[in-house]
Amino acid sequence: FRKLLLATGIAAALLAPIAATTSAAAQDVKTRIIRFGYGLSENSNQGRAVKYFAEELSKRSGGKFKMKGFGDASLGSDIQMQNALIGGAQEMMVGSTATLVGIVKDFGAFDLPFLFNNEREADAVLDGPFGEKLLKSLNDKGLVGLVYWENGFRNLTNSKRPITKVEDMGGIKLRVMQNPVYIDMFNRFGANAVPLAFSELFTALETGTVDGQENPVTTIQSSKFYEVQKYLTISRHVYSPWIVLASKRWYDGLSADEKKILNEAAVASRDFERKDSREASAQSVAYLKEKGMQINELSPAELDRMREMVKPAFDKYAADGGAEVLKDLQAAITAARK
Ligand code: TF8
After folding, report:
1. Most CB atoms closer than 10 Å: which of 158, 179, 180, 254?
2. Under a CB-based contact definition with an 8 Å cutoff, are residues 177 and 210 in contact?
3. Mean pLDDT of 310-335
């Protein structure tokens, strides 16, 4: 008996370090089906990053995390998916931070124009304490914010005329995201801002319900807006983040090991997505030109005029309860510039 005990002891001692170092197999990881919804097509920066994320999850979980991507808003618009996550009917999604304002108003601060000068500043603010704090603010709303991906700097397209000065926007029915900051901004520029879900945008452009829209060049390419829009104006008026969300109900049911796998794969997906989006973005303008779009860039002087024109939008945002978040965001950007 003594010998047996000893033998068991030795076996346990030998096994312990192995158990500690083996990955998924020895961890508390169950088979998980993850429905991951997104709005763009499979053949977009969003679609490619979802695919990468799914592969990372599979690798890191020993094949137990089975994430399936649902593109083209096939599980619903951003807002519908957010609600499905809150209710626990869907596990994960990626979408625009701008569409979260009905849940956490402070996300609207990102939509104020001309905040960031470049991607490096955006990364620093989003991945730093400011971005983190906003992610945390989702927890008591039934959502878990994991990481920010890049949607990108937004530009204008329309079917009416080239926009070389802000007056050219006059009277253009311009689709914007469902968010008061966008509506206010474009009305100040003289356009007729029409809030609409992205999932309805192509048809609205095609049928002439709206004349134009604004999105990063990568999206103008992957959503084939060049088929229904003649003019592209490079304005880079807003840097738009995407946010990867999980249902809190679902996330809370994961083991510590599972959460770790998910969080680490999310960070890997973020790094992949930003790099991929930036590479794709550099190719998009030439592609859109080849597809027949007439493209112009707004001059620095014109951008200054626009900046001047939308100053009251900042005051309005502050007066509507955004003063504190705006101050924090501006401080974070200043810090990122140093
Ligand atoms: C928009 C956004 C969208 C994204 C996407 C559906 O214009 O930029 O392209 O939110 O996730 O609505």
Report:
1. 158
2. no
3. 97
Q: Is 39 in the pocket of ligand 1 (CB under 6 A)?
A: yes
- Please give the Cα distance from 30 to 63 (Å, whole number): 10
Contact 163, 263 (CB under 8 A): no
- Domains, the chain, in order of start with CATH, read 30-337 (3.40.190.170)
Give the pair of three-digit tokens for residue 291. Answer: 């597809």
Per residue in 69-81, pLDDT (tens digit) is 999 999 999 999 9
Q: Is the CB of 151 under 6 A from ligand 1?
A: yes
Tokens (6 digits) for 208: 């002439």
Q: Is 179 in the pocket of ligand 1 (CB under 6 A)?
A: no
Q: Say if residues 38 and 95 touch (Cβ distance below 8 Å).
A: yes
Residue nearest to atom 5 of ligand 1 (CA): 39
Quick check: ipTM above 0.95? Answer: yes
Sheet with strand 192-195: strands edge to edge: 192-195, 173-176, 212-215, 155-158, 231-234, 294-297
Rounded to the nearest angstrom, the distance between the alpha carbon of 39 and the centre of ligand 1 is 7
CB 84 within 8 A of CB 112: no
How far is Cα 300 from Cα 47, in angstroms, rounded to an integer? 33
Residue 297, classed as helix, strand or coil, is strand
Average of pLDDT values for 79-107?
98
Select the more confidently predicted residue: 17 or 275.
275
DSSP string across 33-56: EEEEE-SS-SSSHHHHHHHHHHHH
Cα 14 to middle of ligand 1, angstroms: 53
Atom of ligand 1 lying closest to residue 213 CA: 7
Nearest CA to ligand 1 atom 8: 215
